[in-house]
Specification:
The chain is mainly beta. About 5% of the residues lie in helices and about 45% in strands.
């Protein structure tokens, strides 16, 4: 057993996120399990770039209200205590609403080359506004 008492908070890289996003790593992918997990905090309006995960991703919202959007225009409004699963290879993004902070635990299974995430272009302001409207915000 290993007791990890604290992981430092780091600012998420601007090339993968819009707005202020903060990460606390929980677990990095390593053999044999290759589990990756992090607590991710989004300020209002902050969001990830478009991305996908080779083996999918599970997002468990711990605080606030957030959005998860897909390329086909599907948008899920997720509140504290709710979980959203993104299937393998699905291009998606996630972040806070425009008025509320959102924190989630992001969980995925990596592969031999890392966490299996393919990062893409930023979500535009227009795409974000459309997602807010679709979610009824």
């Amino acid at each position: 057993m290993e007791h990890i008492t604290e992981t430092p908070t780091v600012k998420a890289p601007a090339e993968r996120f819009t707005g202020d996003v903060y990460l606390n790593p929980i677990e990095a992918p390593a053999d044999p399990a290759r589990l990756a997990a992090a607590l991710v905090r989004f300020t209002p309006g902050a969001r990830t770039n478009w991305h996908s995960h080779a083996k999918g991703q599970t997002l468990h919202v711990t605080d606030g209200v957030g959005l998860v959007g897909t390329r086909d225009g599907n948008v899920v409004l997720a509140r504290a205590g709710q979980t959203v699963k993104c299937p393998p290879g699905e291009e998606h993004w996630h972040g806070a609403t425009d008025t509320t902070l959102m924190a989630h635990i992001a969980i995925l299974v990596g592969d031999a080359d890392g966490d299996g995430t393919t990062w893409l272009e930023p979500v535009t302001d227009e795409q974000y506004r459309t997602a807010l409207a679709t979610a009824g915000r």
